[in-house]
């Protein structure tokens, strides 16, 4: 079975074509500047050089058409024709409370996705547009929606309800939803596989650390708490996002700086986090270089704040689960920065692990980085959200044929 994975942003489209016989990525790419001048498709077939295609893309439908043309092209493609695509899996950011798992897309599903636009106004409209465009171009191909929020729908009510008047939950569904669910699900399942233990027997803390960061408590294979909330702004300090702050700071800044609530939220989303503290960059590589090589004090402070909040969150999830068996690091920083992993883990050895500093030098590869005699296992597992989306899509499509 060949499955096309679509991840539509407001002006971009990431895609991968996977052969589910062996899980191999046949081709992948990125369409950029959709609806803007100088639209560009970067397309790569497995084992070959990237190809850049400069072509106008007025909307997502045109972008998807160009992607499909590239996939069946005699020189740069991997398919004889479009009939080889057996299904399409769509990444959808927000499923609200409607969707606790991935789902076959029909008119009712699209209607419910449109009802969730208020919860993810930047992401869901683009996701929906991508789905509708694919349906028009490939009307007979089954399509599946895989949600960033779905994995966290197993959280108990006391973990997702905010201590504000309950009527706001009833009226507007204001609650913690959590994000990065596909990543947290993948790495927790993979951790259980690597350890050759049933996931139902494990208490796992998954740390998805990058420009956007979140940590999740996975007990018996289910998410019971996660650091992101009503929006991806809550939780850890991130690349440009503040994470948790005193809400009164918003009105304080409005009064002092004579700016609107919207402008403050923009500052908290785009000018804060490690970028706001360091004043250098939202790229952790730049901040680490400034901190360790140039002795920049604000850069070092940014790294310490990031690590401290992550460490506190891990500790709180150990308390929530009544222990921990596995701590997993994933995503850009989690997979590639040995320094940040060491910063975060320093002082948590009482949980039952010792860090193997030699193994911790690993970048972007699966590795158990705790010593062999550690009761709690610490692991690096590169995330693979596209594969997880493809597996969910395959499972649902195969279920149709029974």
UniProtKB/TrEMBL annotation:
<feature type="binding site">
    <location>
        <position position="385"/>
    </location>
    <ligand>
        <name>Mg(2+)</name>
    </ligand>
</feature>
<feature type="binding site">
    <location>
        <begin position="332"/>
        <end position="336"/>
    </location>
    <ligand>
        <name>ATP</name>
    </ligand>
</feature>
<dbReference type="InterPro" id="IPR000890">
    <property type="entry name" value="Aliphatic_acid_kin_short-chain"/>
</dbReference>
<keyword id="KW-0460">Magnesium</keyword>
<protein>
    <recommendedName>
        <fullName>Acetate kinase</fullName>
        <ecNumber>2.7.2.1</ecNumber>
    </recommendedName>
</protein>
<keyword id="KW-0963">Cytoplasm</keyword>
<keyword id="KW-0067">ATP-binding</keyword>
<comment type="function">
    <text>Catalyzes the formation of acetyl phosphate from acetate and ATP. Can also catalyze the reverse reaction.</text>
</comment>
<dbReference type="Pfam" id="PF00871">
    <property type="entry name" value="Acetate_kinase"/>
</dbReference>
<dbReference type="InterPro" id="IPR004372">
    <property type="entry name" value="Ac/propionate_kinase"/>
</dbReference>
<feature type="site" description="Transition state stabilizer">
    <location>
        <position position="241"/>
    </location>
</feature>
<feature type="active site" description="Proton donor/acceptor">
    <location>
        <position position="148"/>
    </location>
</feature>
<dbReference type="GO" id="GO:0008776">
    <property type="term" value="F:acetate kinase activity"/>
</dbReference>
<feature type="binding site">
    <location>
        <position position="14"/>
    </location>
    <ligand>
        <name>ATP</name>
    </ligand>
</feature>
<dbReference type="InterPro" id="IPR043129">
    <property type="entry name" value="ATPase_NBD"/>
</dbReference>
<feature type="binding site">
    <location>
        <begin position="283"/>
        <end position="285"/>
    </location>
    <ligand>
        <name>ATP</name>
    </ligand>
</feature>
<feature type="binding site">
    <location>
        <position position="91"/>
    </location>
    <ligand>
        <name>substrate</name>
    </ligand>
</feature>
<dbReference type="GO" id="GO:0005737">
    <property type="term" value="C:cytoplasm"/>
</dbReference>
<keyword id="KW-0808">Transferase</keyword>
<keyword id="KW-0479">Metal-binding</keyword>
<comment type="subunit">
    <text>Homodimer.</text>
</comment>
<keyword id="KW-0418">Kinase</keyword>
<dbReference type="InterPro" id="IPR023865">
    <property type="entry name" value="Aliphatic_acid_kinase_CS"/>
</dbReference>
<feature type="binding site">
    <location>
        <position position="7"/>
    </location>
    <ligand>
        <name>Mg(2+)</name>
    </ligand>
</feature>
<comment type="similarity">
    <text>Belongs to the acetokinase family.</text>
</comment>
<feature type="binding site">
    <location>
        <begin position="208"/>
        <end position="212"/>
    </location>
    <ligand>
        <name>ATP</name>
    </ligand>
</feature>
<comment type="pathway">
    <text>Metabolic intermediate biosynthesis; acetyl-CoA biosynthesis; acetyl-CoA from acetate: step 1/2.</text>
</comment>
<dbReference type="GO" id="GO:0006085">
    <property type="term" value="P:acetyl-CoA biosynthetic process"/>
</dbReference>
<feature type="site" description="Transition state stabilizer">
    <location>
        <position position="180"/>
    </location>
</feature>
<dbReference type="GO" id="GO:0005524">
    <property type="term" value="F:ATP binding"/>
</dbReference>
<dbReference type="GO" id="GO:0006083">
    <property type="term" value="P:acetate metabolic process"/>
</dbReference>
<dbReference type="GO" id="GO:0000287">
    <property type="term" value="F:magnesium ion binding"/>
</dbReference>
<keyword id="KW-0547">Nucleotide-binding</keyword>
């Amino acid at each position: 079975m060949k499955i096309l994975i679509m991840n539509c942003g407001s002006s971009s489209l990431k895609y991968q074509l996977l052969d589910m016989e062996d899980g191999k990525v046949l081709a992948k790419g990125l369409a950029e500047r959709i609806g803007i001048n100088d639209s560009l498709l970067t397309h790569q077939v497995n084992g070959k050089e990237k190809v850049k295609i400069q072509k106008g893309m007025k909307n997502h439908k045109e972008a998807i058409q160009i992607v499909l043309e590239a996939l069946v092209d005699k020189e740069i493609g991997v398919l004889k024709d479009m009939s080889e695509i057996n299904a399409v899996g769509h990444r959808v950011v927000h499923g609200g409370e409607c969707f606790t798992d991935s789902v076959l897309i029909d008119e009712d599903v699209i209607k419910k996705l449109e009802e969730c636009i208020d919860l993810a106004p930047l992401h869901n409209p683009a996701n929906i547009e991508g789905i509708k465009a694919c349906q028009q171009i490939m009307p007979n191909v089954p399509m599946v929606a895989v949600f960033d929020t779905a994995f966290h729908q197993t959280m108990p009510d006391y973990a997702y309800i905010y201590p504000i008047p309950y009527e706001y939950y009833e009226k507007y569904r204001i609650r913690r939803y959590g994000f990065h669910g596909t990543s947290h699900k993948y790495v927790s399942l993979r951790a259980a596989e690597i350890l050759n233990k049933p996931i139902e027997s494990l208490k796992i803390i998954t740390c998805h650390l990058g420009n956007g960061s979140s940590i999740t408590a996975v007990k018996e294979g289910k998410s019971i708490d996660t650091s992101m909330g009503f929006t991806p702004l809550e939780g850890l300090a991130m690349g440009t996002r503040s994470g948790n702050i005193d809400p009164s700071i918003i009105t304080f800044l409005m009064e002092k700086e004579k700016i609107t609530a919207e402008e403050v939220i923009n500052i908290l989303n785009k000018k804060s986090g490690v970028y706001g503290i360091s004043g250098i960059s939202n790229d952790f590589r730049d901040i680490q270089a400034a901190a360790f090589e140039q002795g920049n004090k604000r850069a070092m402070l940014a790294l310490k704040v990031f690590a401290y909040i992550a460490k506190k969150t891990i500790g709180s999830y150990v308390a929530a689960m009544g222990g921990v068996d596995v701590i997993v690091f994933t995503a850009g920083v989690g997979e590639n920065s040995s320094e940040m992993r060491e910063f975060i883990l320093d002082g948590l050895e009482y949980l039952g692990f010792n860090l193997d500093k030699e193994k911790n030098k690993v970048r972007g590869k699966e590795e158990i980085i705790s010593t062999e005699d550690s009761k709690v296992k610490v692991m690096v597992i590169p995330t693979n959200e596209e594969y997880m989306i493809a597996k969910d899509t395959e499972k649902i499509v195969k279920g149709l044929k029974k």
